[in-house]
């Protein structure tokens, strides 16, 4: 048994994600008002029969083998099988030291916990596989952090997030076993993971590890294409942060890109820009290669060859999905020669004009074809006004309108309706998260709650969100916000 270190009794604030509590954990919301619940989510109490544990894993961090990492500040407190028959693993993050804490304090600070709490839910509601967050508890317990690694250590407040996922196993979970030659354990763990989470793979099959690898490769390609399609930069794509189930995990210094820029990196500690948004797909390849190396000791020569071929197919899988997603973002139906050029041309103009990624696509979904044709862009379409300053914008518009004409059985209102279901009006931009964090630091959770509501329906216009400026240009105070992975 691995006890958590509870937050102190001064524990003062609680944010909840009703949907996760009700739909995943089958809990009535009134339960959250009980002492038992607060004690559970702040690490003070364990569930009857629960044996909390921390998981050992290793990983490649920024391309270099980091050896043993493990859950240094997270406790797995149980697995819950809900009414729908789904199994969910419950983890507290920030719940104190574990055998893998190394020099860390086992804590998470309020700012990073609010970001994980809001970020994971925002990503879920954009239709992207991710861990979920059920609750956030904040205390007055002191935590000391040198946020930007510049010697400026400041006092921050501790928080604990109750987060859930179908599984928290990562590429690093297998790497550590292969690295130390613990092959029996590697086999046992892999068979368990396949049995529990890969219904399409037959655990009795001699080729099961290759089949498993094939699923992870295609699901990872799909995940990263989805990230790209909404401008999501994970920020720290180390192999210990890449889920074997290809869900988004570890909400560290993630960010939604604002001005379109393939070099965008949300993590100010990433000087070499290894994890910039335009490099995420390549990093996916790097990480999958590390996964194949971890599987290698269990494969015969023919299986190794097969795994290498599967990995070679990854770029195609990624680009196919990328193309599909961006075609949908532009409302294009069917397959036409030149579709890729049309997408690339638009991205080029966005890059040159630093047009807002989310709102350019959203406003293309809202504007009518006749407004576009006249190149008469109303003021409310501020992102399109930005991109329209490029001298080649009229050329792009005429190619686009011509292409839309070739959509079969389509009308402009149907195109717009369709595009509005894939191009969000609201994403969790860094400035929004920062504004909510600053208020939460003062015990005002109103913006955390507002963002929770808004991001639950990112494709629908929401009057309070409009008033808060969530679909407006980034406010000037937030132009140079920095986000660190020291959390
Ligand atoms: N304050 C801390 N105390 C102890 N261990 C820590 C602390 N911060 C980070 N770690 C550990 O350092 C490693 C890398 O940290 P990273 O920020 O990627 O993970 P994390 O955000 O803590 O966890 P997760 O990936 O589960 O969300 C992990 O093993 C993590 O548990």
From TrEMBL:
Superkingdom, natural source: Eukaryota
Cross-referenced InterPro entries: SelO
Required cofactor(s):
Mg(2+)
Could you list this entry's UniProt keywords, alphabetically sorted: ATP-binding, Magnesium, Metal-binding, Nucleotide-binding, Nucleotidyltransferase, Transferase
- Record's NCBIfam families? PRK00029.1
Instruction: Family membership, please give it.
Output: Belongs to the SELO family.
Q: What's the protein here called?
A: Selenoprotein O
Name the source organism.
Answer: Equus przewalskii
